[in-house]
Amino acid sequence: MGDSFFIDKYGRQIGNLRLSVTDRCNFRCIYCLPDENVTFLKQQHLLTFDEIIRLVKIFSRHGVKKVRLTGGEPTMRPKLCELIQRIKNETEIEKISITTNGSRLKELAKPLKKAGISTVNISLDTLDPEKFKKITQRNYFKNVIEGIEEAVRVGFDQVKINVVAMRNINFEDAAKLVSFGIERGIIVRFIELMPFKGNNWEKENMVTMDELIEKLRETFDLTPINKNDPSQTALEYMINEDPSKRVGFIASVTRSFCQWCNRVRITADGHLRPCLHNPFEVDLKAPIRNGASDEELEKIIQNAIWQKSRGHPDFLSTKFELPSEDKPMMKIGG
Ligand code: SAM
Ligand code: SF4
Asked: Residue 117 and residue 310: Cα distance in Å, rounded?
């Protein structure tokens, strides 16, 4: 380890960097994107690989050990494997993960593993091809299933499936998705639907972790497992008393884990975003392109991290309102 840790004013030490490598996506998931036409960043506004590597080196010198590549859809970024290989070879990062919609994994699982990815989270909200089309507004169900099969075959350290649970849409599919995971030895995690700009979030559409557990208990026996790492986002349950079978819940709405949050994000256009749910961002790309030294960048980063919010607002409160100037999820980086 090099210099001091990046730390916020509540004493949370940053250990985890979510790096959005593109804002583009080949899906149009109803919970992620605004209804209106989305426009994407021009190439020159994206951080280059050299700029990303420089920032990752700075973060790793200050205690960050894990990087998760995300987007948009990270596999849409040309030459992604080259970037992963560079993170692996040129920085002190110990674990590189990716969150993907899975549509390109059939071709990419092997090269991603070879480049240095150790864990893959794949989003899949239903096993019904018609519903899949409604949710993603695209027709890639078969590609995603084949992508998941390939990811399992290639043998990453871990493959997980992320499901955003929505009432009257895929709530009824929960047990089938868990069985799909069990059959392949992969963990399925249900994410509570979160509000973002333009995603038409209504608390009535959100399915809580408690409701999901009640539903799943009609099919499985579930026993809570204690968290090893408090910053871990998912609460996990053992299925049918078999320690090799687990299901997870990312209950960001009903059981916020902000108190232990050790994550920050870098958006595709090079802004540091200390909190997913707070529009406060600091531009890193401009100072990089204006010739800032590493020491100057470190100061900018530490100052921004110091201002990381204590936590997100209570989304269920009647007083809750989304900040009007904020971005949709795909532009922030999930
Ligand atoms: N395109 C990739 C994917 O879909 O996995 C990575 C980016 S996506 C923004 C990252 C994660 O955020 C996905 O698991 C997605 O399901 C989740 N997500 C997007 N919008 C969400 C919302 N409104 N509430 C909860 N999770 C959401
Ligand atoms: Fe794209 Fe992922 Fe958002 Fe779906 S959740 S629109 S796949 S970025």
From this structure: 31
CA of 191 to the centre of ligand 2 (A): 14
The string of pLDDT tens digits covering residues 259-276 is 999 999 999 999 999 999
CB of 70 shorter than 6 A to ligand 1: yes
Tell me which residue has its CA closest to atom 8 in ligand 2.
72
Q: How many domains, the chain?
A: 1
Atom of ligand 1 minimally distant from the CA of 333: 9
**Ligand 1 lined by 60 (C-beta under 6 Å):** no
At CA 178, angle to CA 177 and CA 183, rounded to 5? Answer: 100
Q: Can you tell me the distance from the alpha carbon of 228 to that of 240, in angstroms, rounded to the nearest whole number? A: 21
Say whether pTM exceeds 0.85: yes
CA distances from 254 to 191, 193, 263, 276 (A): 11, 10, 19, 16
Domain with 181, as residue range(s), is: 16-332
The first and second tokens of residue 114, run together, are 């070879």
> For the domain that residue 66 is a member of, what is the CATH number?
3.20.20.70
Would 1 be classed as within a structural domain? no
Instruction: Check pocket membership of 262 for ligand 1, CB cut-off 6 A.
Output: no
